[in-house]
Amino acid sequence: MPLLKGANMLQSRVARPRRLAVIGIAGALAFSLAACAESERDAGGGGGEGGTFVFGATGAPSNFDPFFASDGETFRVTRQIFENLVGIKPGTAELEPELAKAWEPSEDGKTWTFELQQGVKFHDGTPFDAEAVCANFERMYTQEGAGSSPALAYYWTENFGGFADGEKPSLYDGCEATGEHTVELKLTRYTADFPTMLSQDSFAMQSPKAMDEYKANDVKAQGDSFVFSEYARQHPTGTGPFVFESYDEANGTITLKRNDDYWGGKAKLDTLIFRIIPNETARKQALEAGEIDGYDFPSPSDWDALEKAGFKVEIRDPFNILYLGITQKDNPALKELKVRQALAHAIDRETLVSSIMPENSEVAKQMYPSSVDGYADDVQEYPHDPEKAKQLLDEAGYSDLTVELWYPTQVTRPYMPNPEAIFGAIKEDLEAAGITVKPVSKPWAGGYVDDVESARAELFLLGWTGDYNSPNNFIGTFFGTTDNQFYTGGSPWGEDLANALDEADSIVDDAEREAAYQDINRDMMSEYLPAIPLSHSPPALVVRSEVEGLVPSPLTKEEFSTVTVAE
């Protein structure tokens, strides 16, 4: 396999990852030991206890090619079909082997050698080997036309940057098969997020034969949407414990079958069905009627009633954040630090968490959870103090401040279970501090996300569920570039913050990198305050009492191969 070269190798900045513990070079060396690299998925024997599990999905998948996806409903399905070089240990955010059983970095952290599992085949019988790995990375790196659009190749552009056309710098510098089951991945610079970023669903390994046969790259733009290939619609082909069977769009059902030739512990289910039910009340009714076996994101107000009715409410550990975003683009008052500090003092986050958010939610003190590396215990805090808020507004010359406060409708997010109620509480707090609030609401998929991403919203509710345990995955996502929802490029410190994040990500020494992120967190809460962290909340799933073996994921990345359903 020829070595594929990235463009503009001297430029270090690529777009930050938008969406596990970070393993530095020293930590990663442990994975070079074969004894430490055995995956838990190898245990479990033959599986195949039988039965069907029907899960109520909140929406339809965009397609079944994970490389061209960025939404949770697509990944919920493809995660059962495909696997990655590295994976996440079930029920945790920790890295574990998957299709690669060991890996080791070069001294400079820019070349990574992966030792692959042997005896693995794709669902079409194609061997999984080093050539297949390089074929996948070559396919990702050489996308062009619609396939290279950030709207489709979202995770590639956010993690690796540019493509082979050389228009933008790329983190990727090549792939080389150095043996049948040994492969080298080369980077243009060191990043603390590698190889953990490879655990993201978009970087799953797919059958080169199937992608070629069914023209996987044949994707075309059509107005504001895309037309996907035959592969992406009907023939997704991975190495995972389930095989794609059909998608009945008319009835909103996706059917997967157990992969009886799976290389690890086989799935216990015969059949896995996703039934698309967008309305949360309708999902609850379908569960109560026995039409489905479980669904995601039950309303926290329903948890007690569901448990009393005999259902299992599986509560995940919180690995997310909800924040009040502040866009510094159109309203000049919001460019003033004292105004942003006034907003922070005006909001009663303790009452918000205790009265509206789910049980065991926590008040957020900085822009990611305390379990993430680089968390600083001594950041500036903003206790609820309406009078202090008024004083700061007066000092800034905006005692008569008027702001738009945006919130989404037709959505429930892990970090935002009841957007309208959260909006109402914040609106009341701001008005108590003398701020005039103009409400703006739009459907989540009907303009809200697009407008927020385009920095049209002055104050807005948004959040993040981490893909892996990395400060870069949280604050790098938000502030690693200056052209973001917050329009930090409009402030003199926006470029400083982006540069500091780049520099921290490139630090090889774990302790030095930890200290650098702690300094960034202190500066973000005292000197910058580009958003107001509000809360961390534990999202839940609910299943029938007959369902066993479901392992809740703090990353909302459940795998269903361990599930059984008693008759």
TrEMBL record:
Keywords: Signal, Transport
One function term, GO molecular function aspect: peptide transmembrane transporter activity
Presence of the UniProt keyword Signal in the record: yes
GO terms of biological process kind: peptide transport
InterPro entries the UniProt entry points to: Peptide/Ni-bd, SBP_5, SBP_5_dom
Top-level taxonomic group: Bacteria
Pfam family, one: SBP_bac_5
Name the record gives this protein: ABC-type dipeptide transport system, periplasmic component
Organism: Saccharomonospora cyanea NA-134
